[in-house]
Structure to design on (269 residues):
């Protein structure tokens, strides 16, 4: 309800109406950390339910991320730097995330599965530290994306923060599951995940204070990079996870996430 009320009031302004107010930026900085904390709470209190139903939330988040990038972040970038530069930087971010995930950090399965590797003898090797590093990088990028959005305007910042908050909950569930099944005790896994949850709010505040003074062409590049990262996470990570079992409810949730972003776009025009 908080996001809906903010989006409704912000939609009356142009998407690129100057940096959001500092109070708004700090509010969203706090809220972005709540998504992953919610994931920690859910997996600690309702683990069996979370594992059964996380796919629906993943599909919904995928719809939000893909449509939010295409309908909000990329058009704003196009307005600031032109189509060629905006699409080029979007591709740079997409490729960077692909290379990072394919060769340096593991993909955390958000359906509650454990990202453990097996050797030929069937032994499992914990990769908890790599999971922490990967999620830490992901959290920093999320914070930078929200900070860039807030630097461009209240509406764009609200949309970007919504995208981060919604997909952070399944990420929090996945992080807890991955660490626990990697051999980290449940309580310690919870503390590690909560620490990761604080990374995004800090990155939001720092990036907002930095990016609100940058020239429009630099801000346009930052928005394109944010759009490319959301496209990758939504289309390459979350959507395959959400549709892995092919249930109609998951398709419906993806469509609902897309419809929400379309609704916000129509409200802004």
């Amino acid at each position: 309800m908080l996001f809906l009320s903010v989006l409704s009031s912000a939609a009356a302004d142009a998407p690129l109406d100057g940096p959001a107010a500092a109070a708004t930026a700090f509010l969203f900085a706090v809220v972005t950390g709540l998504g992953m904390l919610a994931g920690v709470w859910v997996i600690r209190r309702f683990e069996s339910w979370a594992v059964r139903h996380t796919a629906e939330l993943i599909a919904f988040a995928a719809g939000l991320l893909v449509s939010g990038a295409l309908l909000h972040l990329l058009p704003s970038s196009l307005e600031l730097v032109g189509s060629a530069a905006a699409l080029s930087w979007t591709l740079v971010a997409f490729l960077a995330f692909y290379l990072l995930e394919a060769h340096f950090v593991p993909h955390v399965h958000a359906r509650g599965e454990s990202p453990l590797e097996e050797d030929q003898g069937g032994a499992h090797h914990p990769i908890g530290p790599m999971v922490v590093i990967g999620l830490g990088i992901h959290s920093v990028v999320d914070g930078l994306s929200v900070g860039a959005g807030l630097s461009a305007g209240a509406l764009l910042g609200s949309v970007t923060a919504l995208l981060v908050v919604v997909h952070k909950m399944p990420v929090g569930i996945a992080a807890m599951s991955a660490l626990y099944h990697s051999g980290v005790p449940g309580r310690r896994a919870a503390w590690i995940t909560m620490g990761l949850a604080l990374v995004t709010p800090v990155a939001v505040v720092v990036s907002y204070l930095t990016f609100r003074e940058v020239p429009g062409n630099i801000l346009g590049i930052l928005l394109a990079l944010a759009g490319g990262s959301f496209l990758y996470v939504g289309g390459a990570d979350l959507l395959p996870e959400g549709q892995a079992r092919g249930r109609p409810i998951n398709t419906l949730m993806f469509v609902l996430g897309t419809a929400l972003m379309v609704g916000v776009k129509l409200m802004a025009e």
Remarks:
- The chain has nine helices and two strands.
- The first strand starts at residue 117 and ends at 118.
